[in-house]
Amino acid sequence: MSAEENPANGTPATPAGPQPEPLRFFGTTWVDHSRGYAARRLGVAVGSLAAAAAACFVLRFAYQGLQIAAVGGFVSLLVVVMFAVCSALAFGHTWGSFSTRPDPARQSSLRGLLSIGFVGSLLAYFFRSLTEAPGEKLHRAEYEQAREEYDRRVTRRSGNPSRKRRRRDA
């Protein structure tokens, strides 16, 4: 039995220190790229691209519905521009959230815009999953910083404090 196993049932014990934060669809496989990480990345890329294509197909039907309703060219143009602008803004926001933690207040205020521009979010997810798990770089940097801080704290505490020599002020 290794030192890292739980003596009660032989299962691996949780290592001391900070634990990696799981990512959606990846869990903690992003830490060491194990347990089907590459297949998951491929699945996420294909899934997000397929979802974006299906969303565009549905938006096409919505546009055709506007044409059938004969609402006019100006309203049709406004709808197309609205979806294009919201998708571009959602792409930028989603892409940026992969490298920095978004502000929760700003995130809640942009919820409507992100809902309208969901195609942009799906495309950002697709493009990021071609190189890494979406959000992996941010989570890796935070995890490594937390591990370094933990290691510094643990090594500083080594030794028996009762045997510590006291300084005498003269």
Automatic annotation (TrEMBL):
The chain crosses the membrane at residues 42-62, 68-91, 112-130. Residues 1-21, 149-170 are annotated as: Disordered. The keyword Zinc-finger does not apply. Keywords: Membrane, Transmembrane, Transmembrane helix. Residues 1-14 have a biased composition (Low complexity). This is EamA/RhaT family transporter. It comes from Actinospica acidiphila.
